[in-house]
């Protein structure tokens, strides 16, 4: 692609036929909930002040389709004004398609990436030792680990063997054990949308994108829709210690979501998520290109099982949540020096796509060079009151 997105490359393969909801910054008004329709973006904030409010209705897709709103702009013109370089602050730009929902993520849900986490742990975040550690770990766990059902008797038996050999890992525990890893990816309102810069901490020297499908879940635990996400990951930081997960995962602009939230209805259901193949393209300013894909069919825990571990009697989210489902993408091919594997360069353009959800595009920058996150929940409430939406 090697360019910022336009409507043709951003929308799902079936265009605006799905129930698509997004958020746009409107100068003078603030964040606005928009319905994505054939003739452009329609502001429905007076009916649904937040995307959270829409997701809490009994049938969000039907309510979205039935709600009229002011057409504010065409999608192309909003997308063109979204990249921070050259943005006109007097015109609208695209935001992440969620607002008050908790931003959560499931880790180690694919065997390939699980083994890479084990490798990071073994080399203590030093990429130079990854190739040797990768071969050693694969010899220990064998080729059958991909067929193991997490929490099963077979998984428990493998655990006993690896513990006896001194090879058990906390990543294997959450990868094939009974309990999933569910963590907080970002604070409420901190996620960035398609067209924005995504942040990598400037101290990191070994990092990668993580292309994922992200579910929107109501406060009652109903999965109401899906979008795409980039769970930007710092391999060197988490590899030093799993206790550094917050520093590895939650940095300015390090949670990307979008382009839009597609709500469930006939024609788009959870089975479409289960069957999805997510593609990834990384294009560097130096001409570097990486293409990969991640099949949701290879996930080790069903998406609804992960939702069940996210929310229930022990974990409530009154404003709902969005849940990154994890990725099998773990790049191992060298980009720079031999044996160093992949890591981002400043300015990489990352495109994450699947036909039913469209394309999420972000440019990678150091997190301290991205637009600072300054607009919080109190600011949102004040903005909605000022425009009479609350």
Automatic annotation (TrEMBL):
Q: Name one Pfam family in it.
A: FAA_hydrolase
Its Gene Ontology molecular function terms?
A: hydrolase activity
Q: Output the InterPro entries linked to this UniProt entry.
A: FAH (IPR051121), Fumarylacetoacetase-like_C (IPR011234), Fumarylacetoacetase_C_sf (IPR036663)
Question: What SUPFAM superfamilies is this protein classified in?
Answer: FAH (SSF56529)
Give the record's keywords alphabetically.
Hydrolase, Metal-binding
| Residue stretches making up the Fumarylacetoacetase-like C-terminal domain | 222-364
Which family does the UniProt entry place this protein in? Belongs to the FAH family.
The name this protein carries in UniProt is Fumarylacetoacetate hydrolase family protein
- Organism this protein belongs to: Streptomyces parvulus
């Amino acid at each position: 692609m090697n360019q910022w997105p336009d409507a043709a490359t951003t929308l799902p393969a079936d265009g605006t036929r799905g129930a698509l909801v997004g958020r746009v910054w409107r100068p003078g008004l603030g964040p606005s909930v928009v319905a994505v329709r054939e003739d452009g973006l329609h502001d429905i904030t007076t009916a649904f002040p937040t995307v959270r409010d829409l997701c809490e209705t009994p049938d969000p897709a039907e309510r979205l389709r039935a709600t009229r709103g002011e057409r504010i702009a065409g999608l192309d013109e909003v997308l063109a004004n979204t990249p921070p370089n050259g943005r006109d602050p007097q015109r609208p730009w695209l935001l992440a398609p969620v607002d008050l929902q908790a931003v959560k993520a499931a880790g180690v849900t694919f065997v390939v990436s699980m083994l890479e986490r084990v490798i990071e742990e073994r080399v203590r975040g030093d990429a130079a030792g990854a190739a040797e550690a990768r071969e050693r770990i694969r010899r220990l766990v064998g080729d059958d680990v991909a067929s193991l059902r997490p929490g099963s008797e077979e998984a428990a038996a493998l655990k006993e063997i690896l513990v006896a050999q001194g090879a058990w890992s906390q990543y294997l525990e959450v990868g094939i054990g009974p309990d999933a890893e569910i963590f907080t990816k970002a604070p409420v309102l901190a996620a960035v949308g398609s067209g924005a810069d995504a942040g990598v901490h400037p101290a990191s020297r070994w990092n990668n994108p993580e292309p994922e499908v992200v579910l929107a879940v109501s406060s009652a635990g109903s999965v109401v829709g899906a979008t795409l996400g980039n769970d930007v990951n710092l391999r060197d930081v988490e590899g030093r210690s799993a206790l550094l997960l917050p520093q590895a995962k939650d940095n300015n602009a390090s949670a990307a979501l979008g382009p839009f939230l597609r709500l469930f209805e006939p024609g788009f259901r959870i089975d479409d998520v289960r069957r999805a193949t997510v593609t990834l393209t990384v294009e560097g300013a130096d001409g570097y290109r990486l293409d990969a894909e991640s099949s949701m069919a290879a996930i080790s825990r069903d998406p609804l099982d992960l939702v069940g571990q996210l929310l229930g009697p022990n974990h409530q989210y009154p404003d709902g949540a969005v849940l990154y489902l994890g990725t099998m993408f773990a790049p191992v091919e060298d980009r720079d020096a031999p044996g160093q594997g992949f890591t981002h360069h400043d300015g990489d353009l990352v495109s994450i796509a699947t036909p039913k959800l469209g394309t999420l595009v972000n440019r990678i920058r150091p997190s301290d060079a991205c637009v600072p996150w300054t607009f919080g929940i109190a600011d949102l409430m004040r903005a909605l009151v000022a425009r009479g939406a609350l």
